[in-house]
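Troubleshooting: if your tokenizer reports a length mismatch, compare your output against this known-good record of 106 residues.
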Amino acid sequence: MPWIILVLAGLFEIGWAIGLKYTEGFTRLWPSIGTVAAMVISLGLLGVAMKSLPVGTAYAIWVGVGAVGTAILGIVLLGEPANAGRLASLALIVAGIVGLKLASAG
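Known-good structure output:
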């Protein structure tokens, strides 16, 4: 269950990272409220997951899920470049996430 909670925390991290773009510097009310809510939920779920997972593993996976998801949504939603180097780098992050999960005893 902590792994599911950790992945959910990462998904909420994606939500707040993308949400930051839509807040326009926290000048738009509803995107700002949604972004702050996603931040609180993401950190709360990360804290719950860390109760039973190693801190380094949990944090690295949380950041990795957030980074990969945010980059993919940046490509899909915001028209950011999807060149070979960028996609290969994202694949390396995913490989690291999988490696940390496999190497973890939780």
